[in-house]
Here is the input.
Amino acid sequence: MANAKEQLIDWLRDAYAMETQAAEMLERQEGRITNYPEILAKVKEHIQVTQRQADRLKQCLQRLGSDTSAIKTGIAMLIGNAQSISGVFAEDEIVKAGIFNYSFEQFEAANYRALIAAAQHCGETEIARLCQESLDEEIEMANWIEQRLPQLTKTYLQRKEQGAAAEAKR
Ligand code: MG
Ligand code: FE
Here is the structure.
């Protein structure tokens, strides 16, 4: 049990690093979304959600007599790399960010699923409950993106064609 609890603490710290990176990533996106007000509003909302999730993880660590120091950087680096692949600064960045954010929400959800199982294994029902709240929020965000990605892609292409047509008339 002692080992399982130490492993749980480790994973909670990894998740805290994940949420810290998520907040930074969303804040960068927030500053770059101009023509898509509905998406901007959702990104702003999810920044608040993400900060709550980080606080929950802090609470979980405190319950186990630990804290957020000695955060590992491995996951943080993984996310940084994935973001550069996501092409956030390309012309089609709104579509690329949508695809990336969808997969990132699934990544977060998978982390919480493992945390819940680990917390249950350790008999930490309150930690499992807190992680379930965050899991529900990640699934909600993933579903939101999933539903909007096709229309977002079409809107982007329409605007691109209109822009090209306007260019040609000049
Ligand atoms: Mg999150
Ligand atoms: Fe999230």
Q: What stands out?
A: Residues 91 and 128 are 41 Å apart (CA to CA). The radius of gyration is 19 Å.
